[in-house]
Structure formats: structure tokens, C-alpha cells
Amino acid sequence: MSDTLDRAGIDAGLLQQLMDKVSEFGSTGDGGVDRPVLTDAHKAARDWFCGELRARGYEVLVDDIGNLFGRLELAGPGAPLVMVGSHLDSQPRGGRFDGAYGVVAALAAVESWRREAEAPACNYVIVDWMNEEGARFQPSLLGSSVYAGGLTRDFALARTDRDGLSVGAELERIGYMGSDPAPQPDLYLEIHIEGDSKMEAAGARIAPFIRHWGALKVRIEVTGEQNHTGPTPMEDRRDAVLGAAYIVAKVRELADTASDTLYTSVARLDVSPNSPNIVPGKAVLFCELRAPEPAMLEWSEAELRAALPGLAEKAAVEAEIVSVDRRPAGRFDARLVALAERAADDFGYPKMRIDTIGGHDAVAVNAVLPAIVVAVPSVGGVIHRNDEYTSPEDLVAGGDVLLDMIRRIDRAGGNLDKAAEDS
């Protein structure tokens, strides 16, 4: 092919059309979406996407943990299989680009390559992973972790939300408890918004993630004694929320002690009975500890465990760590990093390398096959909020790079080593 065709970009019109449509599902009317996993809004988005896949001749598959796949045979049986995608579920009152961009860009990129390729050497599968966000059911990356063998299916199906509804029951309710064998690709590509302001500050438009930070998701139960907020003497109160407050402050103190190498949060607190006139008898904290190195995570967990008894004693309560979900740190495939950078160079897009502190399905998949996440800028670094925004031009730039990675992999016959060498 000519040099011009080598650098042909993604079908920008199709990408924008798909992006606009998917943003309607769960729209909050202020630029954001409210589409937590396995809700009616999530089902509607999936139903629409299945229709888009089927209309273009993809075989739609749903595995037994609710991951959704669209398979396209371009090269016949036995050809290498390239997987591309992300997730359609969102945070409550979250942004419209997080996850959904990666799914619709995957379809637009594969369709663009399909029209361009004269003799494709690879087959393709587009994926929408189940419960990437972990907002309704914990832990996050649930569907991709089961797919990669990091979690068992039984464990995942038994996860419940605040109302006691299980993943299994909700998959059945919305019609996405499948039984199809999951495709077994040779590699996985994911395009995503950055969710930070580093790219914007540096003037970069493309950034392959090099490392993914590790994370500990720690659930702590604080048990006090329910009582009246009026007549109960202060010295007799066993206030679970007071104990929780001491723990929240300690979790932040850990991050302040290890500046830039440890990120921490307590972003959810479930209080019982949650009445303004009752001293809380119980509080459940959802803590996160994130770091790029295992030693830092080990240190932070040990410090938190050692501090709990004293913090609980200050509030005359009891505190116990009841579960820890562990996600190890790691590196994405260097060959895919090189492919992304070469594609950016060919289109003249300024690039940089960064880490991802947040989780992505590629983190789970990376344990079993070559995978990568490539980022485009988030305006102001905003993510998980209604005003999350990436410009149409940057969405297209990410799509161009994704298409070019697909193009190079296909021309190398699916041989990633060859594709990287040629880049």
C-alpha cells in the first residue's frame, strides 16, 4: 500500500456517531451518565451494542460471567485472534467517556480496518467486560478477572450490592447470564481516557501505559453500640462512626508519609442504622491503598493493621479487617508499547509514557496474554464525574493509533514480535 494509505485514519464519523449514541444510555442530562453494571440503563446500552454488532455481521457471544463479545471472522478458522475493547458500565453519576469510548472505538477501528484490508490475516473480537468499575459490586475488574483466572466464577456470581442483590441474580434478570465459550485471543488492546492531567500539561495526545500500580481493596468493619444521640452520656458512647473517622484519618496519614509512592482513599462508608438520632452501632469502610511497588503495599497494609487496635480503643469500639482484595502491580507488554508509539509518530501525535494508577480490564488480562492500555487526554484530569471530557479531536487521535496498531499486527500475520520489529 502507499504511504498515504498506510496512515489512513479511523472512520471519525462512525466513531462520533457511536460515541453520541452510547452516551444516551443512562444520561444524567448534564454531560454525564449513570449506568452502573447490570442496571436497566446498562442493559439498554448492551442491547443497543449487540444490535450494532449483529447488523455488521459479528457473532455475538456472552460467557457465563456476563462478558459480552462480538467476533468477526475475516481470515478464516485458525487465524490469529486480536481482542479490542473496554467496558460499558459506569460509575454512579460518572462520565460518558470512561470505558464506553474504548468499546465504541474498538468497533470503529475494526470496521475501518475491515474496509481497508485486502487480505486480512487476523480475526477480531470486540469485548465489553462485565463490572469493570466495581461501583455496585466489589471488587472491580470482576468479569475480566474471572476470564483471566484471577477470581472464580462462583465468587463473582455471589457478590452482592447494598440491597443484597447478587451478580448472578442480576445477570439472569437483565438477560446476560450467558453460556458461550469465551474467545481465546492472542493479544488485547484497550484505548481509554487518561483520568489525570499529566498528558494535558505535557501537550501529549497519546500515552501508552507502561506500568499498572498494585492495589489493596480493604474492607474494615467497626462495631460499636447503638444508642440515642440525646440522653446517652458522652463517656458511655461507643460510636462506630467516630472509630471510622480515626481510621479514615490514618489511611490519609499513610499517603502523606509516603508522598507520590502511595495513594489512599476511603471513598465509601456504610453506616448502620444510619439515623440522625442514633449513635451508630456499625460502620463499614471501603479503603484503597495503591502503589507501584509491592514493598510499599506491604508496608501500608502492615501499618494499617498495627494501628487499628489503638484507633478503635480511642472510640471504645472494635475494628476488624474482614476482607482484602489484592491486585498486583505489573508492566504492560513492551512490544505493544512500541507499536503504540510508532503509530503516534506516524500520525504526528505528541506522545509520552505514563503509569496507570487506576485499574483497567487490561490489568487483569495482562496476567494471561499480551495486553496494553493506550490513553488520550482528559481535560482538567477529570474522571468519574459528569464533566469528564475528551475532545473529539483527541478521541479520533486515539482511534487512529488503535487502528494503526491493528493494521501493523495484521500485516505481521498476528506475530507480535515481527510487528514490533517492523515498527
Protein described:
The strands form four sheets. Strands 2, 3, 4, 6, 7, 8, 15, 16 and 17 form a nine-stranded mixed sheet that branches. This protein starts with a helix and ends with a helix. Strand 2 and strand 3 form a beta hairpin. Mean pLDDT is 96; it is low at 1-5. By secondary structure, the protein is of the alpha+beta class. The chain has two domains: 3-212 and 329-422, Zn peptidases (Aminopeptidase, 3-Layer(aba) Sandwich), CATH 3.40.630; 214-327, Alpha-Beta Plaits (2-Layer Sandwich). It has helices at residues 3-6, 12-22, 40-55, 100-116, 142-147, 153-157, 167-174, 198-202, 240-257, 294-314, 334-347, 361-365, 392-411, 416-422; strands at 32-33, 59-62, 68-72, 81-86, 94-95, 123-128, 187-193, 207-212, 214-223, 227-228, 263-272, 278-279, 282-291, 318-327, 330-331, 354-356, 371-376. Helices cover 37% and strands 22% of the residues.
